Amino acid sequence: MSSHNLSESVKANIEAYLDDLGGTEPANMHDMLTRAVEKPLLELVMARAQHNQSRAAQWLGLNRNTLRKKLLEHGLLDT
User: Fold this and answer.
1) Residue 1: predicted pLDDT
2) How far is CA 38 from CA 20, 22, 44, 60, in A?
3) Do the Cβ atoms of 76 and 43 come closer than 8 Å?
4) Is the pLDDT assigned to residue 73 strictly greater than 70?
5) Quick one: which of 5, 14, 25, 65 has the fewest CB in 10 Å?
6) Per-residue pLDDT tens over the stretch 17-65
7) Which domains does the chain have, with CATH numbers?
8) How far is CA 66 from CA 7, 26, 47, 58, in A?
9) Of 38, 48, 45, nearest to 75 (Cα)?
10) Above 70 in pLDDT, residue 11?
11) Do 27 and 42 contact (CB within 8 A), yes or no?
12) pTM reported for the whole predicted model
C-alpha cells in the first residue's frame, strides 16, 4: 500500500466519522485521531521489531525514551 492509499483511507474514515455525527460538531479531533492511530502503530512496529525498543524507535524516527513514554501511555509496557 502506498502512502497515497493510506492517506485516502484515513480521509475516507474521517469523512465517515463526521457523517456519523449527524450534524453534531466534533471536538478534540486531533487528539482522538492521534490516539486512534498511534496505539496500533506502536503495537505493530513493536511486534515487527520483536519488541526491541531501540530498533522500533529507529524505524519510527523517535528517540528511544520518547518511544518508551508512548508505550507506557498506551499501556503497552509492563512497568
Assistant:
1) 61
2) 22, 26, 10, 11
3) yes
4) yes
5) 25
6) 999 999 999 999 999 999 999 999 999 999 999 999 999 999 999 999 9
7) 3-73 (1.10.10.60)
8) 25, 29, 18, 11
9) 38
10) yes
11) no
12) 0.80
Task: Indicate the residue type of 61.
Answer: G
Q: Is the backbone of residue 25 left (phi > 0), alpha (psi -120 to 50) or beta?
A: beta
How many residues does the structure list for the chain? 79
Indicate the angle between helix axes 64-73 and 53-60, nearest 10 degrees: 100
Helical ranges in 1-79 per DSSP H: 3-20, 29-48, 53-60, 64-73
Instruction: Give the cell for residue 64.
Output: 528511544
Cell 480521509 -> residue:
11
